[in-house]
Amino acid sequence: EVQVVESGGGLVQPGGSLRLSCAASGFTFGGSQMSWVRQAPGKGLEWVALILKDGSGDYYVDSVKGRFTVSRDNAKNSLYLQMNNLRAEDTAVYYCMRDWISGGSGKGFDYWGQGALVTVSS
Amino acid sequence: DIQMTQSPSTLSASVGDRITITCRASQSVNNWLAWYQQKPGKAPNLLIYKASTLESGVPSRFSGSGSGTEFTLTINSLQADDFATYYCQHYSGYYRTFGQGTRVEVK
Question: In angstroms, rounded to a whole number, what is the distance separating the alpha carbons of residues A53 and A30?
């Protein structure tokens, strides 16, 4: 059974930092690209970051470049999102998911976690 | 960056209706286009990938079509469980973008 579980969300002050974790099981984590997507309250989905399966490359939406860093530990089947210099507009539910690409095929985001709420407020 | 534009933003329909949602990309994404369904308080669920391939376990009343920059999601014989918000998303290259979403509500 596939499981994707985010943790580390919470309340943080503007300018503060937070690190989200994502524990995955039930699929070959080390063979999978992974992404983070967020959803602000009452708003749509926004892709945030992607990391290649071996961690050799990472990509970000413009609004978080230079502030957020995605990383992974394939030995622990874990994905991370380090968020620095947080702003009120970063308040959202953050989802972790498998971003499935294999050779010439791809599915997009097939396994999602339940999300972790990050609230940036003084 | 590739922009994705969905229409309509809201769609009012009844059980049994056939509905269509459109998604346009600002440049070609080939067939790297997925559709998701999201219900309140839940994570999105993958319905269609590569523009027209039905994800395992998704009912056959859902179908996708299109290529390049124009895509559609069709739901035949809308069921009560289908009232939700739907998003398109491209996954061409290493960046991803979602459409703004289409809320399907009870007429």
Answer: 6
Size of interface A-B (CB pairs under 8 A): 64
Convert the pLDDT of each residue in A82-117 to its tens digit: 999 999 999 999 999 999 987 778 899 999 999 999
How many angstroms away from the CA of B18 is the closest CA of chain A? 24
SS3 call for A1: coil
Nearest CA in chain A to B51: A107
